[in-house]
Amino acid sequence: MQHSAIATKRPLARLEDAARFAAWAFTPFHRLAARELYGLLAARAFTANGLYLNLGYWKTSRTIDEACAALAMLVADAAGMGPDDDVVDVGFGFADQDMLWMERVSPRQITGLNITPMQVRLARQRVRRRGMADRITLIEGSASAMPLPDACCDVVTAVECAFHFHTRADFLAEAFRVLRPGGRLVLADIIRAAPEPDGFRRRVQDVTWRLFAEKFAVPAANADQRAPYAAKLRAAGFDRVEVRPIGSQVFPGWHQALRADPALFARLPLAGRLPYRFLLNFDARTVYAALDYVLATARKPAQKGEPDGVV
Ligand SMILES: C[S@@+](CC[C@H](N)C(=O)[O-])C[C@H]1O[C@@H](n2cnc3c(N)ncnc32)[C@H](O)[C@@H]1O
Questions:
Q1: Is the CB of 111 under 6 A from ligand 1?
Q2: I want to staple 52 with a disulfide (CB 3.0 to 4.6 A). Which of 68, 83, 115, 144 is the partner?
Q3: Are 114 and 93 in contact (CB under 8 A)?
Q4: pTM score, two decimals?
């Protein structure tokens, strides 16, 4: 099905997009900014129903649709999201996670921020059609310069996107600014894995991280491993910082699903299908050896200078 926000493009513009996408895909270190990359991806998504763009949380999920929703719910649960919360959701894709949260945990208000104009337009249409436009407001804007006032929300979330932000540290400063005292930050994020002791595996890690970072618009400043990542959260002012590895519930499930579900494989853009035909010959541990998938939680101290809010 073609979405109307995409259908408005003229055939020549769509041909140009296809050429630019192919140039990105088939030139090893050809970079695109996140906004261009997602603009060219258009409304391609991983799920059969809905338009999620994350690798999924596979602890109990059996399909990509369940896994993408499970990742979104993992983030909401870690934030303790509920009816008293104003939420700022950064990098919302096509807003599937926001509509899911509204349905399941009913926060008071969600304000979404996304840097890709085409996604914002299409997500707005979808939210309107679901009758949620009075409680979900979607804005075009950057994670590292949020067009939002200070202390306007109780929860900030970013589902599988903070690795793109320019930079993640600038985003953390912004998240701290827009949160009210006592507010919570939850990120499902991709960072650099600790280096393997074996020399050959470490070189493979280095090359695959470089390819990942170049292809998926990851600034060099975001190549954090777990400890420096936690340190950045603390340096931004957060307390109760936890950075929990969840990669074993993400990468193998995604990898296995690509092997077992031809419809999911077919939904990848051609540029993804070609490398995956090769990569699926290896196990997930090898393919994702350079990446660490984490669930990070943190809190803005309840009162300035009172790390645990104790008076
Ligand atoms: C991998 S997709 C994840 C989308 C969605 N969270 C999901 O799980 O389906 C990354 C998203 O981050 C957004 N994004 C990338 N850089 C951004 C930035 N600097 N500020 C705001 N959004 C950004 C992209 O437009 C895209 O929607």
A1: no
A2: 68
A3: yes
A4: 0.92
Structure tokens at 104: 């399941």
With the most atoms of ligand 1 within 8 angstroms of its CB, the residue from 51, 57, 111, 115 to mutate is 115
For residue 202, what are its two tokens? 């470490």
Measured by CA distance, the residue closest to atom 24 of ligand 1 is: 91
Ligand 1 pocket mutation pick from 114, 159, 295 by most atoms within 8 angstroms of CB: 114
Q: From the CA of 94, how far away is ligand 1's center (Å)? A: 9
At 223, which amino acid appears?
A: A
Question: What confidence tens digit (pLDDT) does each residue in 109-153 have?
Answer: 999 999 999 999 999 999 999 999 999 999 999 999 999 999 999
Alpha-carbon gap, residue 112 to 189, rounded angstroms: 17
Q: Is 161 in the pocket of ligand 1 (CB under 6 A)?
A: yes
Which atom of ligand 1 lies closest to the CA of 113? 21
Domain extents in the chain: 32-299
pLDDT in tens, 162-191: 999 999 999 999 999 999 999 999 999 999
Tokens of 156: 């900030």
Residues in contact with 95: Cβ distance below 8 Å, sequence separation at least 6, in sequence order:
112, 123, 124, 126, 127, 136, 138
Tokens of 222: 């975001």
Alpha helices in the chain (DSSP H): 4-7, 11-26, 34-41, 64-79, 96-104, 117-129, 168-178, 199-215, 226-235, 251-260, 262-267, 270-279, 284-287
